[in-house]
Amino acid sequence: MNIEPRSFQLFPDSASNFAGTVDGLYLYMVLISAFFSLLVAFLIIFFAVKYRKRPGAPVPPPINDHSIGAMILEIAWSVIPLGLSLVMFAWGASIMFTESRPPKDALNIYVTGKRWMWKIQHLEGAREINELHVPVNRDVRLTMTSEDVIHDFYVPAFRTKADVLPGRYTTEWFRPTKIGDYHIFCAEYCGTKHSGMIGWVHVMSQEDYNKWLSAGSGEGSMAEEGESLFRQLGCGECHVRDGHGRAPSLRGAYGMIVDLADGSHVRFDEAYIRESILYPQAKIVAGYDRIMPTFHGLISDEGMLKLIEYIKSMGDPNGMTLERSGPNEPANLQKTGPQMSPESEIKAPTTAPRASAGTGKQQ
Ligand code: CUA
Questions:
Q1: CA-proximal residue: ligand 1, atom 1 (nearest)
Q2: What is the pLDDT of residues 186-207, one digit of tens each?
Q3: Following CA atoms 203, 206, 207, 211 in sequence, which dihedral angle do they give, to the nearest 10 degrees?
Q4: Structural domains of the chain sorted by starting position, each given as residue range(s) with its CATH number in brackets
Q5: Are the CB atoms for 300 and 233 separated by under 8 Å?
Q6: FRET label pair with 174: which of 31, 132, 143, 264, CA 20 to 30 Å apart?
Q7: Can you tell me which atom of ligand 1 is nearest the CA of 187?
Q8: pLDDT digit string (tens) for 306-358?
């Protein structure tokens, strides 16, 4: 890594698809504000001098403020600023809408905030701390959560940031346009070392990125590790793949709309998977009993992300399975999953989450 201190810069680097449009809007707002501030200041001084009280000068008659001229003036100074500020509104809203909708085929990377570091995990298995390697000219989507308090993932050179919240998944996306190293900041005050919760994004060519990925993947992919967790927790005993188990099959479920017992519907996404694992009674799938025990306190946030990736990899209905080096057939439960410190993923593996499984009440 070769990062040298840079000389003073008025603006951060422009290194993503958002940089140009965000800077354009910023410049527009600064120019409008500067123009009107100077205009008002100039008129105050100009009129104060021009209409100052002179000895012997006659007192002018009062102004008729119901004249046509006064009305035209008032309409002009209401409508013109209204138009100018509506431009700010529409421009800003359009940027916000684009930034809040990650493209479907974006490269997904998981970020977990923790006082005071950023833990980053690639689907292929590579993990890093306070560093994020991404390929240039490729849409990247970050799915983020926090282990403790609210943080905020901010990359000034990309002109994008988003809050990172405990117990929820938020996303942010960008397309890096320039190879280089860029600052990551935490932009939400999160405690004594908030200012030290920083890191670097390394934007690399696709070729270097592939090299970096393969060099760093000593461990299995996230989906493989999730599969191994899935087995250790005994999830497969109820969530049978053919759909004839005591619990719904998870195959191809990701992204679908699920019918619930109370007649409502929910999208089977990251948030729903997480909620169902931690609070299984919250949303019961229609036709199934309330038998699932909670796994609250038994799975770490990182373990949760791996389970989610495994569930996502179980036959995506859109044919979009793992993009690279993912298991083609994760159904093969005989396969030995990579044994990577399961203790760290499962807290207290012997407390029986299944103890209450037999006592499920009828809906
Ligand atoms: Cu994390 Cu400030």
A1: 151
A2: 999 999 999 999 999 999 999 9
A3: 70
A4: 11-47+102-219 (2.60.40.420), 243-357 (1.10.760.10)
A5: no
A6: 31
A7: 2
A8: 888 888 888 754 433 333 333 333 333 333 333 333 334 444 433 334 433 33
